Amino acid sequence: MRVIRCHVEAPLAADAVLRLPEEKSLHLLRVLRLREGDAVTLFNGDGHDYAARITGSEKKAVEVTVGAVEARHNESPLAITLLQGVARGDKMDLILQKATELGVQAIQPVMTERTEVKLDADRAERRIAHWRGVVAAACEQSGRARVPTVAEPRPLHEALADLPANARKLILDPHQGRALKALDLQPTQPVVLVIGPEGGLGERDHRLLVKSGFEGVQLGPRVLRTETAGLAVLAALQALYGDWA
Asked: Residue 173: pLDDT band by 50, 70, 90 thresholds?
């Protein structure tokens, strides 16, 4: 049976009645063709699913009433933060979507030596809102009830200053990196993975990362594109040390 999940940025509780935002309402009414009495599952990122039913609808608004509340237990035991060099256009959307499906906990877009995307304040604000929407939609599809954080883009050196002190810090290095299976990761240890933008990480970036305690890992001798590299490492980490093991 199809389960329709809808992310809302609002407090939720049993017996609560709320009106959904116009964009969500139009999607339920016009795209999914739902009507009064139909079921929908709400979540707001607190780790619970909230079973609800449509109890009222107008042209551009849907009213829902919350019923049962269920805790979700499908988060990966690996606390992975992805530091992703900002990529162009749809590539960044793909990375965010699939990283969410693969269980990443947080995403920090970073500006690196070879980043080609330029974001002024207005454009950055719009992109962040869009990226967070992509991640929320990926949670709707994948069944996650905790939404990965997407931070504001920062220069790489600034992002490195705020990493957990005990994190295992990884960069992809197809020439000198260790095999992922040789890392012996502990599920309780946070993991930080850095992936460069198109063109990869520059020499200055690499020196900075090594100085900051990052170690090289590899998935074989081939060079992967930015939209492939992080997702391949995330999948391998889940298979070796996470909830795919």
From this structure: confident
For 234-243, what is the mean pLDDT?
A: 95
pLDDT digits (tens, 9 = 90+) for 185-217: 988 899 999 999 998 999 999 999 999 999 999
**Using CA atoms, how far apart are residues 2 and 50, in angstroms rounded to an integer?**
16
Instruction: Report if pTM > 0.90.
Output: yes
Three-state SS sequence of the chain: CCCCEEECCCCCCCCCEEECCHHHHHHHHHHCCCCCCCEEEEECCCCEEEEEEEEEECCCCEEEEEEEEEECCCCCCCCEEEEEECCCHHHHHHHHHHHHHCCCCEEEEEECCCCCCCCCHHHHHHHHHHHHHHHHHHHHHHCCCCCCEECCCEEHHHHHCCCCCCCEEEEECCCCCEEHHHCCCCCCCCEEEEECCCCCCCHHHHHHHHHCCCEEEECCCCCCCHHHHHHHHHHHHHHHHCCCC
Q: What is the pLDDT of residues 21-50, one digit of tens each?
A: 999 999 999 999 999 999 999 999 999 999
